[in-house]
Amino acid sequence: MKRQPARVLVAAESDVAAATIEAALRDRADLSLTVGPLRALTRLIEEHDPAAVVVAASAAGVRAALAATAALLRPPAMILMVADPRGVWTPAARRAGVLGVLGRDASGEELAAAIAAATAGLMTLHPDVYRPASPATLAEATAERALTPREREILGMIAEGLSNRMIARRLEISTYTVKFHVAAILAKLGAASRAEAVTVGVRRGLITL
To answer: Rounded CA gap, 5 and 165, in Å?
Structure first.
């Protein structure tokens, strides 16, 4: 019996990127393509139930895509096409089920191979993912490890918009203790404000929104 083409959704930040990927995969009989804007990612997944999603985006776009798919009960395999493969291979990406990270200039054959691997539950990672971390990246990793479980919990509550008083009430601790933890979180993440701490926490995969 003839095998049905795998349903693949391409979600891109720019029309140029979307058109380039569509042109690269258009003639493949083993794939059934749907192309749409990244901002409609969740709706497109729900409507088309793809086996794999190709996200072509900036680092910020990738973070938005991961956040958008976090609430899905059955998220599809995801392949990221980005300028900085190493930068997007984060704990948040791994938790979201990302199975492929390619460069923005990946060929159609490379992308097709990554899609085939992803639909089989296998990973395809750009070589840059394995290159040694820069001093700045190492500093970020050290800061991430330095956060205690309690500090991560409080950072998540800060991301929810809770005040110190509300956090204290939920955790049944004093407001003074919450202030101490918040100060420690800001210091460890190098953040000047609660909002910046949340941004850094999301970027490093410490919390998801």
So the answer is: 54
Give 3-43 pLDDT, tens digit per residue. 789 999 999 998 899 999 999 998 888 999 999 999 999 99
Three-state DSSP class for 100? strand
Distance from C-alpha of 72 to C-alpha of 196, rounded to nearest angstrom: 27
Residues 124 and 140 both lie in one domain: no
Residue 68 lies in a domain: yes
> What own/partner pairs with CB < 8 Å and gap ≥ 24 does 179-186 have?
181/150, 181/151, 181/154, 182/154, 182/158, 184/151, 185/147, 185/151, 185/154, 185/155, 185/158
pTM above 0.85, yes or no: no
- Structural domain containing residue 10: 6-130
Q: How far is CA 102 from the centre of its chain?
A: 14
Total count of domains within the chain: 2
C-alpha–C-alpha distance, residues 187 and 70, integer Å: 28
CATH code for the domain of 183: 1.10.10.10
Apex CA 41: angle with CA 128 and CA 118, to 5°? 45
Distance CA 98, CA 47 (A): 20
Specify whether 122 is located in the same domain as 71.
Answer: yes
CATH of the domain at 86: 3.40.50.2300
